[in-house]
Design goal:
single chain; 395 residues; 4-stranded antiparallel sheet; elongated; binds zinc ion
Length: 395
């Protein structure tokens, strides 16, 4: 089985690399992924796979078989970054590029669709192929779920387990990394407004300086994490923006801070939020100011189901070889909207190695110099195909 599958993947590789370069040259932002969706639909047509397009705006869901089954997911959106690569397939859309490798993810899922369609009589379960929009900013996964991507509203397959891969430039090509339980952080954002009393900077006794108060607050917020989570549980609270005033001689009436909170235990978010509000109130009152906090909840914690993780581990070993699966000792504090799928099905996400040993200067994700490593495509396709062949066991 493995040998035949690998042979099919190897035969497809040139075609897939051409698709990846085409997608890289035509990047599109969240919910505007029309070009990518058209390429996906064309390839599913070629593979003889039924599908529905226009799901959650630009998403595409394909399926083989009917009943309870497995889903494989790829994201399609690009980032508002001006590409600085010198490539024959450099972005044709100024200010927009595939800097997170979603061109590679889409390509690998197209590859898996071709291989699994050719083996449809040997599949142990129905398979759904989920090509989702808007991973980067808008939580397209959530909208795909609401639209019915995981149930029989779209295709006659009810998804009971789901897998996704993300390219990782830190890990060598041919390796896969993951962990059971929390693997990626929840991410919330917040705005803090400090209101004081503006006036002439020459008469500070007649103003209430919001800048001094906000500066003190930045310092005070540094201890919020240590007050909420117990070591060694990871959490981050970072102030990423500080704006106030625009003159040499005017004390402004307000200062505005922004930041992000990251955590890996679901209820830590509410605790961090409350502690941040309490700290902002206390610091503002001490300075004679008022604090207003707006908290925006983002993607939830990405938790890998232990049984689905066991499948990922076994599939990675079968597809790529024994020592190629690395168990991560701790979660990473980046976020992924794949997390939402885990609220509805047994889900496992993993990192697929992209590091080329001959390119020590290889760029990181979200860099204007990033380019998905084509050498990883066949590994990803093999792994996705193996995942579709495994059934999650309860114990
Ligand atoms: Zn990204
Ligand atoms: Zn990404």
């Amino acid at each position: 089985m493995n040998e035949l599958m690998n042979q099919r993947v190897n035969e497809l590789t040139d075609h897939l690399v051409a698709i990846r370069h085409d997608l890289h040259a035509h990047p599109q932002l969240a919910y505007k992924e029309t070009y990518v969706a058209e390429v996906v639909c064309g390839e599913l047509d070629r593979a003889g796979i039924a599908y529905q397009s226009g799901v959650a705006t630009t998403g595409v869901v394909g399926w083989i078989g009917e009943g309870e089954g497995v889903a494989l997911r790829a994201d399609m959106d690009a980032l508002p970054i001006a590409e600085q690569n010198d490539l024959p397939y450099v972005s044709q859309h100024p200010g927009c590029m595939h800097a997170c490798g979603h061109d590679g993810h889409t390509t690998m899922l197209i590859g898996a669709a071709h291989v699994l369609a050719a083996m449809r009589d040997e599949l142990p379960q129905p398979v759904k192929f989920i090509f989702q929009p808007a991973e980067e900013v808008e939580g397209g996964a959530q909208r795909m779920i609401e639209a019915g991507a995981l149930d029989e509203r779209i295709g006659p397959v009810k998804v009971t387990s789901i897998y996704g891969l993300h390219g990782a430039p830190q890990a060598p090509v041919g390796t896969v990394a993951g962990r059971a339980g929390a693997m990626m952080a929840a991410t919330d954002h917040f705005d803090i407004r400090i209101a004081g009393k503006g006036g002439h900077a020459a008469f500070p006794h007649e103003t209430i300086d919001p800048i001094a108060c906000a500066a003190q607050l930045v310092t005070d917020l540094q201890s919020v994490v240590s007050q909420v989570v117990e070591p060694p549980e990871p959490a981050v609270l970072a102030i990423t923006s500080f704006h106030a005033g625009n003159n040499y001689n005017v004390t402004p009436a307000e200062a505005a801070l922004r930041g992000t909170a990251r955590y890996v235990r679901d209820d830590a978010g509410a605790q961090l939020r409350q502690r941040l509000i309490d700290t902002a109130d206390r610091t503002a009152v001490a300075a004679g100011c008022r604090a207003e906090v707006k908290w925006h909840s983002g993607y939830p914690v990405l938790n890998n189901d232990p049984a689905a993780f066991a499948v990922m581990n076994a599939a990675a070993r079968a597809a790529l070889g024994g020592e190629k699966f690395v168990e991560m000792p701790a979660p990473v504090m980046a976020a992924e909207d794949f997390a939402y799928y885990g609220h509805h099905a047994r889900a496992c996400f993993a990192f697929l190695g992209l590091r080329d040993p001959d390119r020590p200067d290889q760029a990181d994700l979200h860099s204007p110099h990033f380019d998905f490593n084509d050498a990883a495509i066949s590994h990803g396709v093999k792994l996705l195909c193996r995942l579709a062949m495994e059934i999650v066991c309860d114990k």
